[in-house]
Automatic annotation (TrEMBL):
Its job: Catalyzes the ATP-dependent amidation of deamido-NAD to form NAD. Uses L-glutamine as a nitrogen source.
Keywords assigned by UniProt, alphabetized: ATP-binding, Ligase, NAD, Nucleotide-binding
Entry-linked SUPFAM superfamilies: Adenine nucleotide alpha hydrolases-like, Carbon-nitrogen hydrolase
Entry-linked CDD domains: GAT_Gln-NAD-synth, NAD_synthase
Chain positions recorded as deamido-NAD(+) binding sites: N437, E466, W471, A472, T473, Y474, K597
Pathway in which this enzyme or protein is active: Cofactor biosynthesis; NAD(+) biosynthesis; NAD(+) from deamido-NAD(+) (L-Gln route): step 1/1
Organismal lineage: Bacteria, Bacillati, Bacillota, Clostridia, Christensenellales
Protein's name according to its UniProt entry: Glutamine-dependent NAD(+) synthetase
Protein's gene: nadE
Residue positions binding L-glutamine: Y121, S197, K203
Similarity comment: In the C-terminal section; belongs to the NAD synthetase family.
Gene3D superfamilies: Carbon-nitrogen hydrolase, Glutamine-dependent NAD+ synthetase, C-terminal domain, HUPs
Amino acid sequence: MKFGFVKVAAATPRIRVADTEHNAESICACIAKAHEAGAEILVFPELCLCGYTCGDLFGQEVLLEGSLRALRQVAACPQAKDMLVFVGIPLEVGGVLYNCAAALSGGRVLAFIPKRYLPNYAEFYEKRNFQPYRGENIRIPFGGGEVIFGNKVVFRSKTEPDLAVAAELCEDLWVPAPPSVSHALAGANVIVNLSASDETAGKAEYRRMLVRAQSAKTVSAYIYADAGDGESTTDMAFAGHNMICENGEMLAESKLFENGVTVSEVDVRKLAFERRRINTFYDTSQLSGYDSIPFASRGKDLPLTRRIPRLPFVPQGEEALGERAELILSIQAAGLKKRLEHARAQTAVVGISGGLDSALALLVCVRAFDALGRSREGIVAVTMPCFGTTDKTYQNSLRLMRELGVTARTVPVSAAVRQHFADIGHDEAVHNAAYENAQARMRTLVLMDIANDTNGLVVGTGDLSELALGWATYNGDHMSMYGVNASVPKTLVKYLIRSEAARLGGGAEEVLTDILNTEISPELLPPEGGKIAQKTEELVGPYELHDFYLYYAVRWGFPPAKVYYLAKAAFGGSYPPETLKKWLVSFYRRFFAQQFKRSCLPDGVKVGSVALSPRGDWRMPSDACVRLWLEEAENI
């Protein structure tokens, strides 16, 4: 698929215990279904060719030979030839029986991966029938030639350089040091697990946690295929709990007790980027003995089925959103609390415009002062009406200050700005950058001087989205003594305010809801008919698009073409392709051109996975050239 997306699948066939011919047919039917869905990698459960619950039948030559015949039948399936397929089989090597994963591609067996750790506790007694294998790789005769036998094997795609696959089996995941750790250090970024994990109360949740954690720890995709219907229920029941996970995120998961094929796409280039970014990931000093086996897959271009969230900074679900909002607000307040204590500041001075960002900053100030056990009167909230201020935003500013019980001050700045225009010889009728920025800088001057006068700190209100686009006046609203919103994107600002409004209730909730419903604007141009004339999203583009572009361009380092590809998947029903491209080009142009503003940002606490502080996540020269990124974006 495009841009490093690889379609993968985990399948649970409906088997019959010890009926290898039937099981091969059932497995081939699943292969056909996965092939139709476009899968390039397909994983089946542990010992699925004969059944995990064969017990002492594993020692019978009839079963072992039947399993080998079934393996050849599966390898010959036409649809399996351009896929990498893993099936479970009991295999005798040198007079010893092993529980193995057979890797198939191109109509042949590429390798056998024996299980390293055998459970022999509670309901499990695998050591009765099998031996663990922890030796070096060897070559064994098979099918008229030789194949690798061992658990130090990485399968590498011939067509996608960032795709490398390795396997472990069931209990291997549950031990303190799973083989997948070594596999990942050896370069594998897709780990498959052939499992037969029986179902007991609470086990699915624990299993899910293990898969997610191992996927995150190894910075890999993890494909888990579990045994299901058809296994013996003499003492255990199997639910077919299939999972596809990527770097800790669950992409797809089957329902328990429903056999079938679970399909999704994993992004191996995203994983490769993350491994490059984490400079403590690779330590191959103790790795040796790994074999690399090439495999071919079709790499067919198919539509994405995995969910691409339109608001990647905003968690999904009311419960998750509420928890995240509380956490972020607490982080912001903790950062400000520490700074106020350290500076021995008596006040926090914040400019209130009646907009989203200043409302959030004021809410954070209130939390910080409450945590310090100080009176909210120490919060000096200042509204500074000027040429573009509308009555609605002005009144909302006053209402919010009143509801939160802070010290409210109104300092009109129109006269001071006009005097400044006269001093520098600027014609007030000319509404250029000087006209707009003089107002923002005058407001910052007022805040700074009030802070000096009250032994306080100016709390910045600008958010992450504005910093990314440079939508701030240099040394105006760009500057403060501590920026509480510096790593909060605009799309998340709204949800934080909504969450805090619900918590506060009453009049505070009413005014915050009104602020949420107000057009986003810096209000630096005179109103038209008493209404806001300067609408930010008409000038710089929708924030939901820019936040989307920011997340994938900065957090994951995706090239413009891939960001656009994902944007079409996420916003295809809301924006035409030309609009997505227009604002994508604008994003890159602004992001590079405005780096100089980010290079001298005030301190501000990091709350999420993306931050643009020059002391934290993002170091970029202010004169970096955008040419390569613009050429790709413009040629989409």
